[in-house]
Amino acid sequence: MDLKQIRYFCAIADAGSFSAGARRAYVTQPTLSAAIAGLEAELGVRLFDRRARGTALTTEGQRVLAHARAVLRETERLRAAALPAAQAAPRTLGLLPSLPADLVAATLSALRAAAPDQAWRTEDAGGDHLRQRLAAGRYDAILTRLEPPAPGHGQKRLAGDRLALAFAAADRPAGPVTPAVLHGRPLIVRTHCEFLQAASRLLDDWQVRPQVVARTGDDGRALALVAGGVGACLMPDSLHRDGVVHVRPEGVDLVRQLGLEWIGTAPPGIAALAADGLQQVLSPPAGSATPRPARRGAAAGSVRG
């Protein structure tokens, strides 16, 4: 077997079909199919179940996948180790798109300070894609919302934030705020929000029906719309803009723990990062509201991601 077969195998597993895997691997589908057929013949097992709609890993394929990804990760480490420190290949850091820009900049600056000879490049991807690409060896580490780590994964928490309701300063509701304040109110939906489903369930629990006036995957645009008085928006309180205030609804606690994740040995510089210094970049600006104690009997309770 060769590394191309292993890369093609992982590409199909990640993409969910031979056609999508071929596009991801930048080869024709016949080339990819022939490589997988050869790999299956050499291993003596069937790796995929071919279905009308895509493919699925067999039980044997699932076992092989973990080893295949480990081979690709070790191959990248071997290449990096063969280069002098001054010529070390750049490492790739996958970024969650909804991270506050200040945290990204502070993290990259801290990595450069901790390991000056190691260059980093970044790439944005959604949460599921981040971990898939980390496992496949495409990323050396990811900066993301932390979840319980998988076996062999290391993590370093750097900061945290909470989701809050963002209002234009002139439209800030008076008095205690609950999700009910959104009933009939214009709402801007961040389509990439990690808590989108949880927030929808919360509004259903409160029988709240806002008027969705905009959907966007761009946090800068969402902030601009809020500041312009177009509507309210559920967003992390670490995302700031003049003219926007954040208010946490009573009885609601949507928390994100943000940090770095990697597999195996931590890449250069990560172990030396000072989480306390990075936390300071997420300090809420003056004018943001902190929640009052929840009233007894509040219907929402606590929701965590």
TrEMBL record:
Alphabetized PROSITE patterns for the sequence: HTH_LYSR
Keywords: DNA-binding, Transcription, Transcription regulation
Domain HTH lysR-type, chain residue ranges per copy: 1-58
InterPro entries xref list: LysR_HTH_N, LysR_subst-bd, WH-like_DNA-bd_sf, WH_DNA-bd_sf
Region described as Disordered: 283-305
CDD domains associated with the record: PBP2_LTTR_substrate
Pfam families: HTH_1, LysR_substrate
Family according to the record: Belongs to the LysR transcriptional regulatory family.
Name of the molecule in the record: LysR family transcriptional regulator
Native species: Marinibaculum pumilum
